[in-house]
Sequence to fold (233 residues):
Amino acid sequence: MAPRLLAVTFDVRDPARPARFWAGLLGREVVEDAGGLLLPGDDTQVGLRFEPSATDKAGPNLVHLHLTSADLEGQRRTVETALRLGGAHLDVGQLPEEEHVVLADPAGNEFCVIEPGNAYLAGTGFLGELACEGARAVGLFWSEALGWPLVWDQDEETAIQSPRGGTKVAWGGPPMAPKEGPDRQRFELVTTGDPQAEADRLIALGATARGTDDHGHLLLADPGGNAFRLRRS
Fold:
């Protein structure tokens, strides 16, 4: 059985601040686990995890979140709630005619509140998408790794989604932003089987082994050099 995408993990100075922010915005609980704070998802919504880091964020994230809106009033409420919880507006060069709203959480992690009527994110749930930097080969790798079908494959852009629906994971293709410093975000996978056997399967698909972390969990990188972690469920 393919591993499950438990969460996307963010390395931040103070995990409690963004964890409280996202718990309030998404209506989730915060669970303390080994070395970090987890906001569990479910079968269709990806979890979020925040771990402490001694270094500051440098440059834009290579993964940012897209939240969906049922209508204009819902989009406005989401933005107001985010600002009340400690978020801030962010200028990333968006055009005046663009209808999505770009914000940052209290740790500076970028995210967008997407306008209503976006057909691409219809039916994905509130946390509609993880928008990632990466080439088509990275999307193909993750489709095989997770057993999630491709739901978009056009002009070097790819997206995958669980067979159960929910949050999409997308890669924007070239041109890609350069990496600045160590990976501060990574996918966290859990497996019910032998982690090393699963790691061997992922390596055969194109992943690279990177040893283990302080808790003995396996560290790997996808074909785009993006770190991810694999552990037993």
